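Notes from the pairing session

We agreed to fold both candidates in a single pass and log them together. This is the raw record for the first candidate, unedited. Please don't reformat it; downstream parsing expects exactly this layout.

Candidate A
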Amino acid sequence: MNQPNIASLHTLRRYSKYFNMNFALRLTLLSLIGIFGFITNSNAQCAAGYTTTISGLGVLFTNQATGSYNYIEYDYGDGDFDANISSPAHTYDDPGIYIACQFIMDTMNFNCFDEYCDTLYLGGATCMAAFDPYLDGLDLEVYNESLGDYDSLWYDYGDGNGSNSANPTHSYSANGYYTICLSLYSNDTLCDSTCYEVYADDTPCDAAFSYSDDDLTVDFTDESTGNYNAVYWDFGDGFGTSEDFDPTYTYFTGGTYEVCLVMYDSVNFSCDDETCKFVTVEDGGGGGGGCDADYKYTENQLELTFTNLSTGGLINTWDFGDGSGIGFEENPVHTFAAPGTYEVCVTTLSPFPFCTDTYCEFIDVKEYTCEPTFTYSFNATNAYTFVNTTIIGNVTSVLWDFGDGNTSAFPQPSYTYNAPGTYNVCLITYDEGNECGKTCQSISVYPLSVETAVSSTDFKLIPNPNHGRFALKLPTQLESKTLEVRILDLGGRLVYSAQIEAENGRVPFRLNLATGAYIMQISGEDIPVVTKRVLIE
C-alpha cells in the first residue's frame, strides 16, 4: 500500500465539509491565474478588506476593499458563502470562533486578486475546540484545529486512554467504533469541547486507478479497494479536480501530468490512501471551450428586466452603459436614472476550458409622460373596435399594434382578425411626435360559433365613479360561470385578485383602495380577457 500524504488528506477532509461551487470556482480562477501568469502581484491593483459590526450571532460585513476589481466573495467560516454582495449581513447558527475571509478579483482583465481574513468571536466564545482524526487501520493521528485562548487540552480516545499533546498519535487494540473527545481549558476551567465518532478498521485500504485517453480527453476508472465512500482526483494541471469515482477530464493542452487519486472514508475516517501516475496526452482534438454571450430584455420605462441567454461560461458580468458599475446577477433588473440610449453588454467567461465572449446592444430607454389606457368591443362578425381612453398626458397622436403584424394610426380603429387566437394589442401614444406612453392587452379572438364570446361593453359597473363599494353586472350567458377578476393600478401593479360567481347576475365589491383610476380585468374559460375602468373617489 502506498503511504498517503497525511497532511493533504487532513486538509482535504477539513475543506470537503464546506466545499461548494463558489469555493471551487475561486480555486479554479486562482489556478488559472497562476498557470497563465495573468497576475504577478496579488496586490498590484486592489486590496481586500472589511470591518465588522457584531450583534449577538449577527455580523454586518462592511466592504473596505479598494482597487479595480469586479468580483467579490465572502467565506463566513461556517460553510456558508456569498458572492457579489459588497457588504453582506450574515447570521451564524451557533456561538463560536470563526475565520471569515473576503476574496476580490478582476475577472475581466485579470490584473488583480487579493484575500483578507479575520477571526470573529461570537456569542461570548473565548475558545473553540476542533480537531481532525486520521486513521490508518488501527493507528490514529490527530490534528488540532482549535481556535481562541486556552492554555491546556486533553484528548480522550474512547478506549480508556488519552493525551495532552496537541497533535498526538495512538494505536487501538481492536476494530470498532470509538468516540474521540477534545477538551480545552483556560486556567483549569473548561472553555469548550467537541467529539468525533470514528471506526478503527485494520482492513487493507489501497488506492488504485486505470485510464484511457483520446487526444486531450481522458477517462479515469477508480479501482481502489477497502472500506471507503469518497474519492478526490487531482488531474495535475493546476486546476482540474473531481469528486466523481470514474471521471472524464479534458486537458487544455497536451503534455505529461501527474494525476493523483485520494480515496477515503468520509464518515468514520477509517480508510485513507493516495496513489499517483504520470499521464501523457497529445493535441489532436477536444480541449478548448465555447462561450456565447447573449441576452434579451423587457422594458417598463426606465426599468429593464434582462434575461441572460449566454452559454458556455461560469461567470457572467453586466455593464449597463450608464456608469453604474459591473453587475453580477444572472438575470438582473436595472433602473436607469434618466432616459437615453445606452450600450448594455453581457460578458460570459469560463476559466477552464478558457473562453470568453461579450454581446452588446444599444437600447433606447424611455421615460413616459402619458399613461395610456384603452377599451375594446367586438360584434358578431369578430370586428373589433378599439377606443383610446387615455386621460393622463398630452396625447397628440396614437399608433395601434394589433399583434398580428398590422398597425393603425386612427384614434378609434375597427379591425377584423383573419384567424382565431390570442393577440397582444398595444396602444402607443405620442406627444408632438415623441413617444410618451405605451400599454398592451392580451385579447382572445374566438371562432364565430363560440356562443360565450363577450366584450367589455357587456359588463356594467354600478356606480362608477364610486368610493370602493360597487357592483359588477355580468351578461346573462356568464351568470353561471366562475370568473377571475384582477384589478391593477395605472402603473400595472396588481392590487386585487379573486374568483367570483354571480348572484342574480351581480357581484358586489367592497374595496379599500386609494383615490384614483384602476383597470379591472375579467377572464374565464372560453372567455376573452375584457377590461373595465374603475374610478375610486
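Candidate B (folded immediately after A)
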Amino acid sequence: MTTTTLPAAQDRPRTYLVRTLGCQMNVHDSEHMAGLLEELGLVAARPEDAAAERADVIVINTCAVRENAADRLYGNLGRLARLKRENPGMQIAVGGCLAQKDRAGIVERAPWVDVVFGTHNIDALPVLLERARHNARAEVEIAESLQVFPSTLPTRRESVYAGWVSISVGCNNTCTFCIVPHLRGKERDRRPGEILAEVGALVDEGAIEVTLLGQNVNSYGVEFGDRQAFAKLLRAVGAVPGIERVRFTSPHPAAFTDDVIEAMAATPTVMPQLHMPLQSGSDRILRAMRRSYRSTKFLGILERVRAAMPHAAITTDIIVGFPGETEEDFEQTLRVVEESRFSSAFTFQYSPRPGTPAYELEPLPKAVVQERYERLVELQERISLEENQAQVGRTVEVLVAEGEGRKDGESRRVSGRAADNRLVHLALPARLAGLGAEGGADPRLAEALDPELPRPGDLVEVEVTYGAPHHLVADSALQGRTYRVRRTRAGDAWAQRERVKAGLAQEEHSHGPTAVPGVPVPLGLPVVRTALA
C-alpha cells in the first residue's frame, strides 16, 4: 500500500491546503484563510502534495447553495479519513456556508474533523486549530453575526495580476429559494475609503484588474444612506492609478439603476461586462420567488446597458423547475432568454434548501425538470455560439492568465480574458509555439525576454478567428495578422513571484513569516495612501 506519511514536522515547516467549494465570495474567503495560516507560520503545500492532499492542515471552505453541497463535503471528508489515519497529526477544518448551517453535525457525521467554523468568524481559524491540537478534541465555533470584516484579515492572493475586493457582505433580500441571507447575515457595507485603500494596495503589489464582490453590489451604500454609492464607487475605483480593468459581481435587477449604467459607460477602466441574474422569465414565478422585478424591467435594463455599451457581454443565472412552474411559465423563460441574447448562462435545476420558504413547497417531478433544463441549455448553447461567432474578425485585448486553458500545452496556445470577460485561447507566433516545451528554464522568466512572448499578467491584442459556445480562438498570429504584446507591471510581478519560487531571486519585500513555495501576497489596509481615503 502506498503511504502518504509526511516527513517529521520538526524537520520542515508545517504545510496547509485550502479547498474551495462554491462562489467567488468563497474563493476570496479562502484567500483570507490561507493568509491566516501563513501568519501562523504554515506554508502552502507544493502542487504535487496538494494534488495528493498531503498537508498538515487541510481546510475545506464549503458552499450550501445547492442540494449536492453536503455530498461534495462528505465525499471529500471520507477521502481524507484514510489520510488522517496514516498521518494522525494532520488537522482537518471545515468552514464556509455549510459549516455555518450544519455546525456540530459535521463532527457528529465525520468525527475525524478537528475544527468547524462559520462565515462570521473566519478570523478564529488559527486559534481553533491550536486549541484543537492542544486539547486533542474537535473545536466547533459558530458566530451568529460578523465578528471581523474579512477584508481586514491577512490575505494570500492566488493571483498577482488580478484580485477580489469585497465591498459588502450579507444580503437584505428575501428570495424564497436562497439560503445565503440566513448564512451570511444582513448586508454590511465597507466604507469607500477602506475599499479604495485595498485597491491601491493591490496595485502596489502588481495587480491591474480588480473585481468588486458583494451578494448584491448595487445595493452598496444602504448602511450609510447613499443610494448612488455604488455608481460613485465604480468611478472612484476606476480612477485609481494603475488599475486597467474593473469588474463587479453580482448585482440585483431590482436595485440596478441608470446611474450605475452611466458610471460603467463613462469609466474606461470599467469593463463592458455585466452578470445580471434573471432566475426566471415568468412574472408569476418571479413573484413566488420574491424577486422584486418583472421580465419587462429586466429586459429594459439590458436594453439600456447595450445602448450605453454596444459591445457589452451579459451573462446570467437561471433556475429551472421552481415549485409551481408550469409549461407556460417555462415558455416565458425561454422567450426572455431568446430576447436577452446572453453570452453565457449559469443554469440550474431548482434545489430545495432546508430553512428557505420554498422548501415547504411541493417539488415538480424530476423528469419534467430535467426535460425543461435540457431545452433551456440547448437554447442557450445556440445563442452563445451565435454571439461568439459574431466576434470573429474583432480585435480584442486579452489579459493572459494562468490555468484558464486546460489544453494550452497540447494546442500550443495561451489563454486569458478579453475586456468583456470572454475566454480567449490565442496562438503565439509560430517561432514561439514550442518554446519551453522540452522542459528546462521557463523562457518567460528570462532577463532577455522575447518581445512577443507574453507572461501571465501581460496584455495581448489579437484578432478573433473562431467562436465556440464557451470560448473564442484567436490564431491571428499564425496568419500574419494582429498580434501585439503589451508588457505590464502585473506581468513583471508574476515573473518576480515565479523567480522567487524557482530560487532565482529574493523577495523584494518582507511581509512577515512566509516561505516559498506559495509566495503570499499580503494585504493590510494602508495608512499612508491618504489621497485615496
